[in-house]
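In this section we walk through a basic example: taking a raw amino acid sequence and producing a predicted 3D structure, encoded as discrete structure tokens. The instruction is simple. Fold the sequence below.
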Amino acid sequence: MSERFDVIVVGLGPVGAVLAGLLGQAGLHVLAMERSHEVYPLPRAAHFDHEIMRVFQQLGIADEVLTHSRPAGAYEFRNAKGELLMSARRGGEQGVSGWSNSYMFNQPGIERALRSRLAAMPNVIVRLGLAFQTHAQQDDHVAVTAQDDAGNAETFEARYLVGCDGAWSPVREMLKIGLEDYQFDEPWLVVDTIPRAPTNLPTVNLQICDPARPTTCVLMGPGRHRWEFMMLPGETAENVLAPGFVETLLAGWQVDVEVERKAVYRFHGLIAERWREGRVLIAGDAAHQMPPFAGQGMCSGIRDAANLAWKLEAILRHGAEEAILDTYQAERDRSVRDYIELAIGMGRVVCTLDPAVAAHRDAEMMGRRDAEEAPAPVGGPGLNGGLFAENDEAAGRIFPQFIGADGARLDDALDGRAWLIDADGGGSTAGLRRIATGDPLLAPFRSNLTAWLRTLGGDAVLVRPDRYVFGVGDAQDLLASWHAAAGDDAPHAMAQETQI
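The resulting token sequence is shown next.
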């Protein structure tokens, strides 16, 4: 007989590992399969933000992640003369999630931390060297066939299958899901380096908007630095990867570095037409791909995982209707499109090769800089079709992670369920923790929490497990809306559960 799981996750990059970890912490029986035996040894993604650090905190790996990361600092756009056109972020400031706004990191170290966390979960089975082949949907499960290194076929069953298997996703391809193309396609040479000495290394992240050769220069995790050089018309991958080419480009920076990796990537914007078909879903690069200029590719995939994990848990453990999975793409699609469009807009600014057009661009950007124009917010979840309280202005905001005077963090004081915080408390369910504002657990955060509620004019807040605000207002109204939307509609005393 095939072994039966709650969820099979295909692909064990950061997105698949986060999804498997969140599902595992929820007590679900998970199989995570990955065709490669080892973590890819070189960096790929370079940046994550405060929301993603909060997810790492939820998984219990924040301290380990910090050893492979550093606050991002400023992200500056400068022209060929070195003049500041725009400063896009200051990563050292604390974000609403209770961590620095932005981090630069070394991906292999964080992937190893994620896999170590999975190894500590007895209900999560990790199979390396196992490649997804096919699936067949049945009324109550998905049958999955995979192949090991020796060519042997194995079959498994699960209530749900999630493809986190990258840009060339076999899961997506089997579903014959098309990709919407944003018509942005630019080849870049990516160069990862290990500095031998810090002399002359930039201390901020830079986009050099030079029409002669647009260039990105960013900090990575501790002890690493990355350059990205736009390939010019007529240049080929063979040209730019030839011996001496990269060294010539780096010579102008007057830095002493060892080249760790050089590779050609095509930066493009793509989004899958459908993210779900029955019991099969896709997430991360399988569902969307974006240029790196906004640093949100991996972040968006991990937000997919956080969104999907609690909804699968609600169905499999708390009696929610399968229809809540329809809210997955409805919520994530708008966020992903925002970031793709932001990244492409930034890319078109950077990728200008005409000197006259570049001069006009520089003047416009410096004018906006001097006027201190604030960019419009992007990246929030889609409320239309999403699982939120209706007609609620607070719905869809990130709920702040308040930090006590002693450094205690709100999320650590509570648990991974949804939270209803109000004056009365009591009446928790398997999927929702109801807690009074006067509860001693909230003492370190009470003044900030009550001040936040006052600004929104509500007596209570209901926070989803992915830490977005479901709604603010009357506690009983919020409860009724939540139970109708998310199931778990039989309140009972919280059972004592072993933490995995």
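Looking at the output, two observations stand out. The radius of gyration is 23 Å. Residues 490-500 have pLDDT under 50 and may be disordered. In the next section we compare this with other chains.
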